[in-house]
């Protein structure tokens, strides 16, 4: 089953294609308008799937992000704070807590279930390259020129297709039949197969003049969670919004607001990819998270390979040695990180001396 959707400005016309063919005298013309032969070729064309928008000489974010070592590091440094993971969320329909009497065995089973649920809540949004629109012409038929004054969008509503593989084509007023662009696919999919919580029109909060005040209130989780619902992960608008949010967090050093959330890993990946880990590294040292600090440096080295860099054995070197190696070679904010590390070492030394002083007294 196809549906024809005609869109121009605020004008929207939707027509059931089967009914149109059977009831209109110009059914032959409409049949040719959708050009079934071209659409059949289009629906089986494997190139419909989006390809990463990267050159051969450019680092591929998608490939790097799904690397097993990168994923392991990101999951490790995200942390697992149950109070934060299972904290109350501002949602409608409040459900009161349930209190149960459990045996020790039942309590252990319940705790394991909660652990698995917590891990699901920490599943990171994918990091992808932005989609790239290239018009793919299916047919150019001038005889249909000026048939209508707006584009006709043809959408296959058959079951068994994903939003990315679904057949969607556009007949332009000049007679050209082409694949739908990504923003057109986005709107048609949301029209016929709506995602809960997603709007067809972009919410005002994502406009720059409205987004900035939200970020200045440090409502980062609200912005990132809402962006995940509204956009696909390779939507350029999504990438722009989350990048702006990560940079705002980095500038204000509010990293702890994302710890033990699904967004901490992508944020750390972004900072490592852009070579801006120093503020996060300083924060980890201040919080005495030296394992995480060493892992962050390892992540930076994986994402930014350098043939001139001296190899580092992360399994053999201790955390302080790894940080000092980074400090001496690639750190951009050396004074800040060095000061944080020196303060940490002084605190550790004072803690070691305290029991000896107490025993001596």
Automatic annotation (TrEMBL):
One cellular component (GO) term of this entry: mitochondrial small ribosomal subunit
One Pfam family per UniProt: MRP-S22
Superkingdom, taxonomy of origin: Eukaryota
One Gene Ontology MF term: structural constituent of ribosome
Record protein name field: 28S ribosomal protein S22, mitochondrial
Species for this entry: Tetranychus urticae
Gene that encodes it: 107359606
């Amino acid at each position: 089953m196809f549906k024809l959707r005609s869109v121009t400005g605020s004008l929207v016309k939707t027509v059931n294609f089967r009914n149109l063919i059977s009831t209109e005298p110009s059914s032959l013309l409409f049949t040719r308008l959708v050009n079934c032969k071209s659409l059949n070729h289009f629906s089986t064309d494997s190139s419909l799937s989006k390809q990463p928008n990267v050159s051969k000489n450019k680092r591929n974010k998608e490939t790097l992000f799904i690397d097993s070592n990168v994923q392991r590091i990101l999951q490790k440094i995200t942390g697992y704070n149950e109070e934060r993971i299972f904290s109350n969320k501002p949602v409608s329909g409040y459900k009161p807590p349930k209190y149960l009497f459990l045996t020790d065995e039942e309590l252990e089973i319940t705790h394991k279930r909660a652990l698995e649920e917590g891990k699901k809540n920490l599943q990171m949004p994918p990091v992808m390259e932005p989609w790239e629109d290239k018009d793919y012409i299916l047919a150019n038929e001038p005889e249909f020129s000026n048939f209508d004054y707006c584009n006709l969008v043809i959408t296959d509503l058959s079951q068994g297709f994903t939003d990315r593989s679904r057949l969607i084509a556009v007949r332009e007023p000049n007679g050209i039949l082409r694949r739908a662009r990504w923003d057109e696919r986005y709107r048609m999919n949301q029209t016929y197969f709506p995602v809960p919580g997603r709007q067809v029109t972009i919410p005002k909060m994502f406009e720059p003049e409205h987004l900035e005040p939200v970020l200045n209130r440090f409502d980062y989780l609200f912005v990132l969670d809402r962006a995940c619902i509204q956009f696909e992960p390779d939507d350029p608008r999504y990438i722009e919004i989350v990048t702006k949010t990560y940079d705002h967090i980095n500038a204000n050093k509010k990293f702890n607001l994302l710890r033990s959330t699904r967004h901490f890993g992508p944020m750390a990946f972004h900072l490592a990819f852009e070579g801006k880990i120093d503020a996060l590294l300083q924060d980890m040292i201040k919080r005495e998270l030296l394992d995480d600090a060493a892992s962050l440096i390892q992540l930076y080295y994986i994402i930014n390979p350098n043939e001139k860099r001296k190899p580092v054995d992360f399994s053999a070197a201790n955390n302080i040695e790894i940080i000092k190696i980074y400090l001496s070679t690639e750190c951009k904010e050396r004074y800040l990180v060095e000061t944080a590390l020196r303060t940490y070492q002084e605190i550790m030394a004072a803690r070691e001396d305290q029991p000896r002083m107490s025993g001596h007294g």
